[in-house]
Design goal:
By secondary structure, this protein is an alpha/beta fold. 40% of the residues lie in helices and 10% in strands. The radius of gyration is 19 Å and the shape is globular.
């Protein structure tokens, strides 16, 4: 059985994955928590990620009780919530950022805002230390990777708890996401058996609804999840929570091949992806990799390191992952050792 929910042909996710497929390149998907270290910094991070080689960006909506996020992302959400971030501010940020891209795509050295530290909708809440103050001058931004551009249609995905969606109302939240320019949403705590209503609403607004398939998901539920997915399928690499890990599980390749046998949707792997060697291993078997905690770990240093150093560190990691995905040659086999968490988690 090969079934999935189709988006419109001109949908940003469809366009992006089609272009990557034609070039034989996997997607690099990056997660950024909205409002950490400041909401005004998030727009700048979106530019930086694209300039460094990211194809799709997940924008995390901070939530006080995430069920699948590890200590790093939980801490990032706590920092953002402590500064009073609100759902409408994240939507306004996305709308303003996308509008700016469409009206005047920035050069590689152009910052998101003319006035540093100010983004439409930002409360301009001061950070806990001077290290969070965005400087008036920006370091030279990384050169875009070959074949990539600062296109306005880089898909933004809302990574959001269903509790937020439910409280806003499924239809209302989907309508606001579409109006803000989001290409879809990832709702990790929405059971497949209860996803039909939101999936139908997302179809009405041409929004992707990405759902997760875990190592423990029974086969009959995998088929239900994939049938309701659109945009891409999120394959969770390991049992447990998000976080950086040393090794990938040996059975991951088989799970990816099984998923790709039942759907023509792109299959992207997340949880634990943090190193260029992970990208090289997964390149032959996955349509994309998702990196989150490794980026958030760098953002967590914003209260003790200059902001420009943090941006440079983020850009370096993205470039290394992008180069690993684009490198030729056969990838090594996945390690037979079980997945292990690093001490940094």
């Amino acid at each position: 059985m090969r079934t999935w929910t189709r988006l419109s042909p001109d949908h940003p996710l469809e366009q992006r994955f089609a272009a990557l497929r034609s070039q034989g390149r996997p997607a690099l998907v990056a997660f950024v928590p909205a409002g950490d270290p400041q909401l005004s910094a998030t727009g700048e991070l979106l530019d930086l990620l694209i300039q460094s080689g990211v194809d799709v960006i997940e924008v995390g909506f901070p939530y006080s009780d995430p069920i699948a996020d590890g200590p790093l992302i939980q801490a990032a959400y706590t920092r953002a919530l402590s500064r009073g971030i609100r759902v409408h501010e994240i939507l306004e940020l996305a709308s303003s950022w996308l509008s700016a891209r469409r009206q005047s795509p920035p050069s590689s050295s152009q910052a998101f805002s003319k006035e540093p530290g100010v983004v439409p909708g930002d409360r301009q809440t001061p950070g806990p230390s001077s290290a969070l103050t965005l400087p008036a001058r920006s370091i030279a931004a990384p050169k875009p990777m070959p074949g990539l551009s600062l296109r306005a249609d880089v898909p933004l995905m809302a990574m959001v708890s269903y509790s937020i969606v439910y409280r806003q109302g499924e239809g209302h939240f989907a309508e606001r996401c579409a109006a803000a320019g989001f290409s879809g949403m990832i709702v990790p705590d929405l059971p497949a058996e209860e996803a039909a209503s939101l999936a139908a609403i997302c179809r009405q607004h041409d929004l992707a609804l990405v759902q997760l398939v875990a190592p423990t998901t029974p086969w009959h539920r995998v088929q239900t999840i994939v049938a309701q997915c659109s945009g891409f399928v999120y394959c969770v690499s390991v049992t447990g929570i998000t976080g950086m890990r040393e090794r990938l599980p040996e059975e991951l390749r088989q799970r990816l091949e099984t998923l790709r046998s039942i759907t023509d949707l792109p299959v992207c792997v997340g949880f634990g992806i943090s190193r260029p060697e992970h990208a090289r291993i997964l390149k032959p078997f996955a349509d994309g990799i998702i990196v989150g905690s490794a980026l958030v770990a760098r953002l967590a240093e914003a209260d003790r390191r200059p902001w420009e150093e943090i941006k440079a560190s983020l850009a370096e990691l993205i470039r290394e992952l992008r180069q690993a995905l684009d490198a030729g040659g056969a990838a090594a086999e996945t390690s037979a050792a079980p997945a292990q968490q690093t001490a940094s988690q």
